[in-house]
Amino acid sequence: MEDFESGFDQIIGNHALGLISKKEYKSQVKERDSFFKWGNAQISALKAEHADLINKRAKNSWSGHKRLQFPVVWNRESYNKIEPEIRTAGRKGD
User: The domain containing residue 56 runs over which residues?
Assistant: First the structure.
């Protein structure tokens, strides 16, 4: 998502510098907006299709739990950059 947003910032910058015409700028903005509309429609459809699973998962989670934006955690260090570590005491030998 960040890459997409930085790409849009680039479109704005190119337009501000006069590197692309107003017509091209509007075309690219329209394309971006249609992509977001399509993506939001897909997300809504998936949420409606799997509402029972989403509700079950929410019910089983602990109080205050917040889902990550992505399901993969590569290692503890990268995870802790996104979510603070829950445990306060380390394991034996840490």
Answer: 2-60
The two structure tokens encoding residue 4: 């997409």
Environment class of residue 32 by beta-carbon count within 10 Å: exposed (0-12), middle (13-18) or buried (19+)? middle
For residues 65 and 81, give the distance between their C-alpha atoms in angstroms, rounded to a whole number: 17
> Nearest 5 degrees, angle CA 13-CA 18-CA 24?
80
CA angle 30, 31, 36 (to 5 degrees): 95
Number of domains within the chain: 1
Question: For residue range 19-70, what is the model confidence (pLDDT) as tens digits?
Answer: 788 898 888 888 888 888 998 999 999 999 999 988 888 787 777 777 665 5
Amino acid at 79: Y
**Is 89 inside any structural domain?**
no
